[in-house]
Amino acid sequence: MDSSQKKGGFVPVSPSQTPRSTDKHGRDFRSLDGNGNSSSKLDRDKGVNVQVILRCRPLSDDEARLNTPAVITCNEHRREVSAAQNIANKQIDRTFTFDKVFGPTSKQKDLFDQSIAPIVNEVLEGYNCTIFAYGQTGTGKTYTMEGGGRKAKNGEFPSDAGVIPRAVRHIFDILESQCAEYSMKVTFLELYNEEITDLLAPDESKFSDDKSKKPIALMEDGKGGVFVRGLEEEVVYTAGEIYKILDKGSAKRRTAETLLNKQSSRSHSIFSITIHIKECTPEGEEMIKCGKLNLVDLAGSENISRSGARDGRAREAGEINKSLLTLGRVINTLVEHSGHIPYRDSKLTRLLRDSLGGKTKTCIIATISPSILCLEETLSTLDYAHRAKNIKNKPEVNQKMMKSAMIKDLYSEIDRLKQEVFAAREKNGVYIPRDRYLIEEAEKKAMTEKIEKLELDLDTKDKQLVGLQDLYNSQKQLNADLSDKLEKTLASFSLSHTLTGISQIFSWKEIDGSMNLLQKKLVETEHAFLDLEERYRQAKSTVKEKEFFISSLLKSEKALIEHAYELRSELENAAADATEELKVHVERLKAMYGSGIRALDDLAGELDKNSEYTFGRLNSQVLNHSSALEDCFKGMALEADQLLNELQESLSKQEDKLAAFAQQQREGHLRVVESTRSISKITSNFFQTLDIHASKLTKILEESQNIQDQQLYDLEKKFEECAANEEKQILEKVAAMLAGSSARKKNLVQTAVDSLRATAADRTSNLQKEMSTVHDFTCSVKDQWKIYMEETENHFVEDTAAVESGKHGLEEGVRNCKAKVRTGTQQWRDAQNSLLTLGKGNVASVDSIIRGGLDANQLLRSKLSSAVSSTLEDVVTSNKNLLSSIDYNTGKCLEEEYVVDVPSCSTPKRRPINLPSVASIEELRTPAFEELLKSFGDMVKQANGDVKHFSGSYETQLQSSRDSRVPLTAIN
Ligand SMILES: Nc1ncnc2c1ncn2[C@@H]1O[C@H](COP(=O)(O)OP(=O)(O)OP(=O)(O)O)[C@@H](O)[C@H]1O
């Protein structure tokens, strides 16, 4: 048994209801702050900033295995976190400063000792404190809050025990060291898909299934606070008990495996510890000090596509993101001090209301991942947390209560409960205790406020509609600009193609020029593409904005439906007559808003049709333009082809002529070579013949020489013989023979001379013969040479004539080419001119169409605004009527029907109340975005087919298929 129980034995107040220092109900019985705490007064006056701690987890095993780069740097000493962002190939570091920064190597113990322990101490001082973990899924929220283990081993915690077990341990350590008398109660709730479930509720078989966990109601306490009706409170005496409770509760929490975390918490959880500590005043009066510690583990903010959430998971993620978005909006409004704080838009913010801008001390632990893959979400978390730093709370220490007053309080509570039980048992009417009556009164007031808020919402919606209209117009303009740009780019692109084709048939100079032109065009095209890309990006971001806008509209609508639900549940407890009248008025309002918005819808439809028609015309014009351009370019290409062909033909003719000329030349040269060969042959023959004749002559001469030598020898010999004979005869016949010898001598000489003469004559005649042969041959050679010379001359003349004619032919070809080039240039100029005229004509016509479209849109716009203003006027009058009737009825109800119960035994019998059913409220919910798109598409198709039919049958369509309602068709 716990010592506190033994010593004190007092019963603490309900921990499900946050103790409030300004609680009027208990004010009379409470003393002033026993500590005379001046710092609390200071805090109250100035406000204390929410403390924001940043924790970055280490890279997970998977991330480390895949070498995922880390982009987060933590400087714990300077309390700074830097995220390295790569924008347009430039590294840009974004640095954020927080109250404390814990890097990837930080220990659970350090985090607790440095940041959480002081907060826990303040709880024991009597403050209400909240610690909540916020961050992307899988960044270590649950690890930080709950950690890996809670059980102490040899008095030591496991090193990965988180904030909750350490805080519990710390509280018990301090209380035990102070030997304080205390009592402690814990609650553990889960907020899943906007439903609160009690994680400490006893396990009943029918609730054992997750899906059938019993949701419990979040109630307004009528004093601006909330309480969870029927939340189980467990009285605890030891840390061990709390660990068991935590284990039990955590096991019931909804978790699931996502791509980002194997065990991802799909719900928000709030674990609250309420401690009552007994103190004695110097006068001996027993006082009770109360502190409350809320430990919140939020579900992870997540990118649905990246976390791999589908179907049910995606709905969860949507709900998680929705409540976190509301939390973000609350933070923004608190930071910017921009009027109405939308606490009521989600249960999470309703539960945390006192922790955000209230009297609680709050600490946010923002968790991030260092991975580059999570950079976008990390930056969003850093922004979120950094903004939250500026929230100012006004913490107040809870006023201590006198023990006797507390007991009195509890007795009256028991009495109230007894009376309720009694009335329930008797079933003879409704017993309304005074404070309940006051609560209901407050609820009625809250209801009126809600109606006012709904009207405000309606106004905002109207403004949003106008904003959407503007957005639509600007989008239209952007589209027109884009198509214009596209057209220009296409034109320049095809122009550049044609230029490339034509440049092939012009000279290098022209080709150079064309190349430069082409390059310029290419650069321009590139610029145009970049421009287009930029515009595409802008358009994409606009679409994203629109999507966000639509999703926020859907969310607002959801919130409206949520309000309607609440309205219904509150109406159930309120007076019946007022409800009936209210219903009639709401019906009227519904019809009026419906007709007004239908008119708006019609106008929007007309606007759509008009813009569609304009776009159609624009499109057809653009198509005409592009087809005309295409034709023009085709013609140009054809002409260029013809020119090219002609040029090619003339060039090939020139080529043929040149080939023929070359052939002629070759033949001429061959002939010359042939003639030269024959001349050289004749000349060599001539010299050979000459050689032969010369050798023959030499032979003849040698022979004649020999013969002459022989004859002379013979003559000499005969003469010697004759002389010797004559010497003898002379001696003998001196005188007689003198005469005979002279005669014989004469005869002998005469004969020799005659033979000599004959031989000489023979030789001369032979020589003459040879000489005549040589002469004949020379003559024949001369004749042949003459013939050859004549032939060569003739060939030369022929060749010269052929060269002359080839030259003429070439000159003619070049002249033709020049003429064709001139024709080509002229054709190109003509094409350019026709292109320019075509472009101007098209620009003018597109301009006139756009002007027409704009004028028509302007007209429709003015119609729309007049319709909107008339509808708004109607709404204002009707609302005035409604409010006055509500006022009247409320007054009537409060004055005449609601009275403090005086047992008169005439309590009227319970009778049924005609309320809007859940189904009717559910019908008001906008169907899924895809369905809306589909039905909108169908309607547009139908409208294109038969515009009249569309407007006439719109009402019927609306009635026949509720699901195909377009957004903003408010019914209630
Ligand atoms: N500081 C840390 N040191 C070591 N491991 C960590 C740290 N922070 C987180 N982890 C590990 O990262 C994983 C995911 O952590 P955890 O489940 O706490 O994330 P979560 O933010 O609660 O995610 P969810 O929002 O999906 O519930 C766990 O395996 C956890 O052990």
Summarize the SSE layout with pairings:
Layout: H1 3-7, H2 24-27, H3 38-46, E1 48-49, E2 51-56, H4 61-65, E3 72-75, E4 80-87, E5 90-97, E6 100-102, H5 108-124, E7 128-135, H6 141-145, H7 163-177, E8 181-192, E9 195-198, E10 215-216, E11 218-220, E12 226-228, E13 234-236, H8 239-252, E14 255-256, E15 264-265, E16 268-280, E17 286-297, H9 304-307, H10 311-336, H11 347-351, E18 361-368, H12 375-388, E19 392-393, E20 401-402, H13 403-426, H14 434-503, H15 508-573, H16 576-732, H17 736-897, H18 918-923, H19 929-945, H20 947-960
Parallel strand pairs: 2-6, 2-18, 7-17, 7-18
Antiparallel strand pairs: 1-19, 3-4, 4-5, 8-9, 8-13, 8-16, 9-10, 11-12, 14-15, 16-17, 17-20
Adenosine-5'-triphosphate (ATP) binds next to helix 6 and strand 15.
Short description:
With 972 residues, the protein is an alpha+beta fold.
**Cα distance spanning the termini:** 58 Å
The beta-strand count equals 20
Heteromolecules bound: adenosine-5'-triphosphate
Q: Please write the CATH class name of the domain at 38-409.
A: Alpha Beta
Low-confidence stretches: 1-40, 205-212, 304-310, 502-507, 897-902, 946-972
- Mean pLDDT across all residues, rounded? 75
InterPro entries: KIF11-like, KIF11-like_kin_motor_dom, Kinesin_motor_CS, Kinesin_motor_dom, Kinesin_motor_dom_sf, P-loop_NTPase
Biased composition (Basic and acidic residues): 21-31
Keywords: ATP-binding, Coiled coil, Cytoplasm, Cytoskeleton, Microtubule, Motor protein, Nucleotide-binding
Family: Belongs to the TRAFAC class myosin-kinesin ATPase superfamily. Kinesin family. KIN-5/BimC subfamily.
